[in-house]
Amino acid sequence: MKTKFSILGIIAVLLYSCQDKTSLMDESFDADSVMAVKNMEQQTLKKWFPFNKEADSIITTAELIIKQQEKEMKIKGKNNKGEKRLYEAQFHLEQLKKKVNYIKNYETSTENFDASVVHKLDSLKLGYLQEKLKLEAALCDFQEFNMH
Q1: For residues 15-46, b (16+ Cβ closer than 10 Å) or e, as one string?
Q2: How far is 127 from 112, CA to CA, in rounded Å?
Q3: Long-range contacts made by residues 17-26, C-beta under 8 angstroms, separation at least 24?
Q4: What is the DSSP string of 23-89?
Q5: Phi, psi (5° rounding) for residue 111?
Q6: Are 83 and 141 in contact (CB under 8 A)?
Q7: Would you say 96 and 130 are in contact if contact means Cβ atoms under 8 Å apart?
Q8: Sign of torsion, CA 131 91 96 138?
Q9: What share of the chain is helix, strand, coil (3-state, %, to 5)?
């Protein structure tokens, strides 16, 4: 009878000790996962902080150039080509602002950073870059127009 209790006691101790090790392994795995997610989040934030500054700078500069062009058009008089270029620049500026605001809202509303979030942000940045190029081309048209 003592051997049965001893065997049951040993089995209980082994089961208990195995459960503790499993939970410790799960906790270390969870800690590794949390560290990986935090690392991904930090890398993403480091990458997007300069983007936010750049976007704000481009928008401010474009607004100033457009205002200057509007003033020049008032002084020189209306011109169909000039008005068309002004409208095009304003349109691309508004599109760029929408894209930047969407990206910033997406960044701030994202709670869990994983590979899909990073991919989505990269995709959004590509759209931003395309619109930025269109805006820059429209702004360059002002300079071309002023030289003629």
Answers
A1: eeeeeeeeeeeeeeeeeeeeeeeeebbeebee
A2: 23
A3: none
A4: HHHHHHHHHHHHHHHHHHHHHHHHHHHHHHHHHHHHHHHHHHHHHHHHHHHHHH---HHHHHHHHHH
A5: -95, -40
A6: no
A7: no
A8: positive
A9: 95, 0, 5
Whole-angstrom Cα distance, residue 71 to residue 51?
30
Q: What is the pLDDT along the chain (148 residues), one digit of tens a residue?
A: 555 455 555 555 555 555 544 444 445 545 555 555 566 566 666 667 788 888 999 999 999 999 988 888 887 777 778 788 889 999 999 999 999 999 888 888 877 777 788 788 889 989 999 999 999 998 887 765 554 4
Residues whose CB falls within 8 Å of the CB of residue 105, separated by 6 or more in sequence, listed in order: none
Quote the distance between the C-alpha of residue 26 and its chain's center: 32
* Token pair 């931003």: residue: 128
What's the distance, CA 145 to chain centroid? Answer: 35
